[in-house]
Design brief:
globular, 448 residues, six-stranded antiparallel barrel, six-stranded antiparallel β-sheet, alpha+beta
């Protein structure tokens, strides 16, 4: 049986293209390593830690603090996890949080109250063009409305937010329109649809496969790695809309070599494992249309009301994207798989809001593991190759050409709702990502 390897997408860098260097300092892979070894006398001082270690501490604190826990976020400036606490009658809750290593902030709104507010929004204001997510930095529900929400629909949204009470939620206007995009690594095609491949995985039966956006998976059953080419993969499972936006697509040739990496055009970033996102965490996105872009996580468990229906459980970010980026990969400098591009509003010129499907949730739902199933990759929360989460290698220089839209593409091309027909790409062009791997001593360079 022939051994097929999916060719890497090689996007040419235009002379004078916008390179993601800027004035920001280069992030070396181990530049933010945890500082353990503090004396017992300093045990109550907040720990410095990597953003990739923050979810574990946040999870422990949620269990430790119970109802007093009101969310958390990663402060990149201090490299500390900030935990929101509603002390109530338990005066020891702050001491427990500090001993666990977090910076503690007392807030008014409990997580129970914030989640109840989100349920009210779902019941009364599920309006296309809106989204909401709990923002732990403001201790409020951040409600976003795109430019299509006007008239009676705007009035209904505004009155629902007011009904939650003072200080519970805030409304933000988006200049664009919420829609599914396509982004990620290598491009994939199906008829007139184009999407991006997110991450290679191994299906539960050992078959090589990949994850992409669910709205790409419901748009077409068979996908090719070349426009007008023969199909190379078939959709096995797809969810969109509903509780996520993800699809498992299996390669038709069981001997296909599917490396656990993100193709950046000039190089690759090895992907070692899947990890949960943390608010405040810096992330990178690769898309076949816009190339590499970076930003930070703004909210978790976001609800987005697309024209095609409501999608829940997403990650909200300020990473730009445009049509053609759907299904693409969101990852960290350390080689952790975080998300699949779903959708949003705006573009890489004006900015906007973008939403991603958590990889950990998708892996669990489809019963797949990250990587080729030979020990090179791992499932959600697993460690790969014995390395500590977040301790993998980084990648070299990157270019931002980026446009973001909802949904990711399998292999870098765009698909999903709103894709162009007739074989046209939704968001032409191609970008390029970080160059060489960390072996050359360089690292991904943030643009802000």
């Amino acid at each position: 049986m022939s051994h097929q390897r999916i060719p890497k997408r090689r996007a040419a860098i235009a002379a004078g293209g916008v390179v993601a260097l800027g004035a920001a300092a280069i992030l070396l892979p181990n530049a933010s390593a945890s500082q353990d070894g503090a004396s017992d006398d300093a045990a109550a001082a907040p720990k410095t830690l990597r953003a990739t270690d923050a979810p574990d501490l946040a999870s422990r604190l949620a269990g430790l603090l119970g109802d007093a826990f009101a969310g958390s976020y990663y402060d990149r400036a201090s490299r500390q996890l900030v935990v929101n606490v509603v002390p109530g009658d338990d005066s020891d809750v702050i001491v427990r949080a500090e001993k666990a290593g977090a910076a503690v902030r007392e807030v008014d709104n409990s997580m129970t109250e914030l989640e109840a507010g989100a349920r009210t929004l779902k019941a009364r204001a599920t309006i296309p063009g809106t989204s909401w997510a709990v923002d732990p930095r403001t201790n409020k529900i951040l409600v976003t409305a795109d430019r299509t929400v006007t008239g009676d629909r705007w009035n209904r949204l505004e009155s629902t937010v007011r009904s939650l009470g003072s200080g519970m939620a805030a409304i933000k206007r988006s200049a664009g329109t919420f829609k599914t995009f396509a982004s990620g690594g290598d491009a994939i095609f199906a008829g007139g649809s184009r999407c991006s491949l997110g991450f290679n995985v191994t299906a539960g039966d050992g078959t090589p496969a990949f994850l992409t956006a669910g709205h790409c998976g419901v748009a077409a059953e068979q996908w090719s790695d070349a426009q007008g080419g023969q199909p190379i993969a078939t959709v096995d499972q797809a969810v969109f809309p509903g509780e996520g936006d993800f699809a498992l697509v299996t390669y038709d040739d069981p001997a296909t070599e599917a490396p656990s990496e993100v193709d950046l055009g000039e190089g690759t970033v090895p992907i070692t494992e899947a990890a949960e996102a943390t608010v405040g965490q810096e992330v990178f996105r690769m898309g076949s249309t816009t190339g590499l872009a970076d930003g930070q996580v703004l909210g978790l468990n976001a609800t987005v009301n697309y024209p095609e229906g409501t999608v829940t459980g997403l990650i909200q970010t300020d990473v730009c994207a445009e049509p053609g980026d759907s299904g693409g990969s969101m990852f960290t400098q350390d080689g952790l798989a975080i998300g699949l591009t779903s959708g949003g509003s705006g573009d890489c010129t004006a900015g906007g809001e973008t939403f991603f499907q958590p990889v950990t949730t998708a892996l669990e739902a489809v019963g797949a593991t990250l990587g080729a199933g030979d020990g090179d990759g791992a499932g959600a929360g697993d460690q790969a190759g014995g390395e500590e989460s977040g301790a993998s290698e980084g990648a070299g220089g990157q270019e931002i050409g980026g446009e973001e839209a909802g949904g990711q593409d399998v292999g870098g091309e765009e698909a999903g709702a709103g894709d162009q027909a007739g074989g046209e790409e939704a968001g032409a062009g191609a970008g390029e990502g970080p160059g060489e791997g960390a072996g050359d001593g360089s690292g991904l360079t943030p643009t802000h």
